[in-house]
Amino acid sequence: MTATDHALELVAVAAQAAHDKKADQVLAFDVSEQIAITDAFVLASATNERMVGAIVDEVEDKLRDAGAKPIRREGHREGRWVLLDYGEIVIHVQHEEERMFYALERLWSDCPVIPLTLT
């Protein structure tokens, strides 16, 4: 099983929104073979808590414009690692220190990378 076309569309919207707000290291993984409850992860990082918040706000705005509604949002108050759960996709926006420490891309390295075209 691979990520659905709709999930891939949401990944593209979320990744572009993060990129537009100057997120670092924007990556996406197709985790549909490993996790039954979601199709894809989007990872992005920022150098400070304000940037994490700005990236999260932009991602939420663009996904709302695309008709997606979040199921859950965690970590926004601390601004170090925010998780946005949209069912089909999950977005992780992390402070660069958390990104290095938890190394989610290493955890999911056996999953296919979703190619992103960020402009």
Automatic annotation (TrEMBL):
One of its GO terms (biological process) is cytosolic ribosome assembly. It is found in: Cytoplasm. GO terms for cellular component: cytoplasm. Its main location: cytoplasm. Keywords: Cytoplasm, Repressor, Translation regulation. Transmembrane segments: none annotated. One of its GO terms (molecular function) is ribosomal large subunit binding. It comes from the Bacteria. InterPro entries: Iojap/RsfS/C7orf30 (IPR004394), NT_sf (IPR043519). Interacts with ribosomal protein uL14 (rplN). Belongs to the Iojap/RsfS family. Functions as a ribosomal silencing factor. Interacts with ribosomal protein uL14 (rplN), blocking formation of intersubunit bridge B8. Prevents association of the 30S and 50S ribosomal subunits and the formation of functional ribosomes, thus repressing translation. This is Ribosomal silencing factor RsfS. It comes from Nocardioides zhouii. The gene is rsfS.
